[in-house]
Design goal:
19 helices, six-stranded mixed β-sheet, Rossmann fold, ABC transporter transmembrane region fold, alpha/beta, four-stranded mixed β-sheet
Length: 610
């Protein structure tokens, strides 16, 4: 399969809307649409209250100018009602907006996780090049920012548009007609304060983009470095025992400090951009409060407008410039949103490209199909790397039900062979035919133990409630974990609490309870002592007599447990030979069979140790 292409097309906004359209057009569309409509209607109410407050501002200062105490008290009452209305509208708006943000985030998270976790895509894209690293941070943080910021930006943009259209008319009427005389020619200028507002906000926006133009790229780099640092911390936590045992703390500290140094570098770059933007925006916002008063003051001093009209003009100018300054005020938020959306889209692109390439494989890839026969057939299988081409070729074998097959030789190819049979290794060619409706379980060297109850882990993939205490405790005893009896409903960090050998024993207890038909053991007991390893396998083989078991291992004593051995041998850098050997078993009684031979081997080991 060709390497994954991750170049992202533009524009980001259109692709993000395409990714999210399912929320507003799918099963939850009415809830989402109603919440969005209510949020926008509440935005209209917010603007209406701002307009009424602007009119109140003129009435208040006119009352003060006329020393009319009765009108002043009336305006105080109006102000109290306006404050109450603003409080209620803003509170309800906040609730609706946050519900919409959470609903969208929940849907998009579910959508991305479903694609990412489907059919081993999360594992497969980790082997491919591209800018889709740290998927956990992209799902947990970037989706949150992308959805929350999108709602915030949409609301603020809608609010500013309403302000712009509403105060355009107000400011136009308050501006009156300004007569400009040039060389004995008098030119009437209508709505001069409106044109000054456009000029003021336009100049501010241009300067803001010039000052903070690099913030978007810096924001993207910062989120990447932050994600790298979080991943390193999580990795250190997951491997805390190994780090402590080999006293690697100084090296880990240096690695974490190096990663944080990258954060500091990006932080400093972002600080420089934000500092320049803050320096400009501070002067811009303060000047906006006084600029209209200074411009309109000559008309008040000439007696053509009242004090209330002067203050109303100043406030209307501020509202209009605030609306026109939306790009300036939201530049940093836009940069953060843009960076997060790009990271979410990069992850989704990686999964989509992978799915497209799987669909286009045709007969060029590894073909896995079900067969009516009882056996597992591997024919002319070649295994490739997603980066380095073909690693092995010429693998053919026929595994009959009930066989115990030991696979040894090249461990790397053996592990990839197991992954190909389970369907998670895509790269290569050839045919794999699996017995129809057979239950196949792959057991790796490091089993996955989630932070769940012990009963849940033992029951997987069945529900925990389906397992009785007696069955669980019996399985634990058979694999040598009697110390865990009585803790079936305890929730622990089992991957840290148990040693690697105990974790492998626990995975074997799960096998005893599941009783699958086909079992693939990939170095699944390698952390146990030699004697314990043989004894645990003997338990599995005894308790699951009808299961077909394929064991990947180099353990010399495993021949006695298996009836057949496949030796994978490389020649000239590529595997071209599969030695298929039958393992002779002693004739006679059961004591002289498989397990009698094992007992004698264990006895000789004990004698040698003593």
């Amino acid at each position: 399969m060709s390497s994954l292409r991750t170049a992202m097309p533009k524009p980001v906004l259109g692709r993000f809307l395409l990714l999210s359209r399912g929320y507003f057009s799918g099963d939850l569309k009415w809830r989402a649409r109603i919440q969005l409509a209510v949020m926008l209607l509440l935005g209209v109410a917010q603007v209406a209250l701002v307009i009424r407050l602007n009119l109140w501002n003129a009435d208040l200062f006119d009352a003060l100018e006329r020393h009319a105490s009765d009108r002043f008290l009336y305006q105080v009452g109006i102000f109290a009602a306006l404050i109450l209305g603003i409080m209620v509208v803003n509170m309800v708006h906040l609730q609706v907006k946050r519900n919409l943000q959470l609903g969208w985030r929940e849907w998009l998270t579910s959508h991305v996780v479903q694609d990412w976790m489907a059919e081993a895509h999360h594992y497969q894209i980790s082997l491919l090049p591209g800018s889709h690293d740290n998927p956990d941070a992209r799902i947990a943080d970037d989706i949150r920012i992308a959805t929350e910021a999108a709602i915030d930006l949409v609301h603020s943009a809608f609010y500013c548009l309403l302000l712009l259209f509403s105060f355009f008319g107000i400011l136009w009427s308050l501006s009156g007609v300004l007569h400009v005389t040039l060389q004995d020619v008098t030119i009437p200028v209508y709505g001069h304060m409106v044109w000054l507002a456009f000029l003021y906000a336009g100049a501010g926006s241009v300067l803001a983009f010039l000052v903070g133009g690099q913030l978007m790229a810096v924001a993207n780099n910062r989120q990447t470095t932050e994600a790298d640092f979080r991943f390193a911390l999580a990795e250190a936590r997951e491997n805390a025992e190994a780090i402590a045992l080999v006293q690697r703390e100084p090296n880990e500290r240096q690695r974490l400090q190096r990663l944080f140094k990258a954060i500091r570098t990006i932080w400093d770059e972002q600080t420089i951009g934000l500092r320049s933007l803050m320096l400009f925006s501070s002067a811009y916002s303060v000047l906006a409060t006084m600029f209209p008063i200074l411009v309109a003051s000559p008309r008040y001093l000439a007696g053509t407008i009242t004090l209330g009209a002067l203050m109303q003009t100043g406030q209307a100018f501020q509202q209009m410039t605030a609306a026109l300054s939306w790009p300036v005020d939201n530049f940093a938020r836009l940069a953060e949103w843009h960076a997060s959306v790009e990271r979410v889209l990069a992850l989704q692109d990686a999964v989509d490209n992978l799915k497209r390439q799987i669909a286009l494989r045709g007969e060029d890839g590894i073909q896995i199909s079900a067969t009516a026969g009882p056996s597992l057939s591997i024919r002319d299988l070649a295994i490739a790397s997603p980066m380095n081409g073909v690693l092995a070729s010429g693998i053919s074998a026929e595994i009959q039900p009930g066989e115990r097959v030991l696979i040894t030789g090249d461990s790397e190819v053996g592990l990839m062979l197991f992954k190909a049979v389970t369907g998670i290794w895509l790269w290569g060619s050839g045919t794999i035919e699996l017995p129809d409706n057979a239950t196949i379980v792959f057991m790796p060297a490091r089993p996955y133990l989630p932070h769940e109850t012990l009963r849940t882990i033992l029951a997987y993939p069945a529900e925990a409630a389906t397992l009785a205490d007696d069955a669980c405790n019996t399985a634990l005893r058979k694999v040598g974990l009697t110390q865990l009896e009585g803790r079936l409903d305890a929730v622990e960090a089992w991957d840290h609490l148990l040693s690697p050998a105990e974790q492998q024993r626990l995975a074997c207890a799960n096998l005893l309870l599941r009783r699958p038909q086909w079992i693939f053991l990939a170095h699944a007991t390698e952390f146990l002592e030699a004697e314990d390893e043989l004894a645990l396998l003997q338990t599995l083989f005894t308790e699951l007599p009808d299961a077909t078991i394929l064991t990947l291992s180099h353990h010399a004593g495993f021949d006695a447990l298996h009836s057949r051995k496949l030796y994978l041998e490389r020649e000239g850098g590529k595997l071209v030979t599969v030695h298929d050997e039958g393992l002779p078993q002693p004739a006679g009684s059961a004591e002289a069979g498989h397990f009698g031979r094992i007992r004698r081997l264990l006895a000789s080991i004990r004698e040698g140790l003593s």
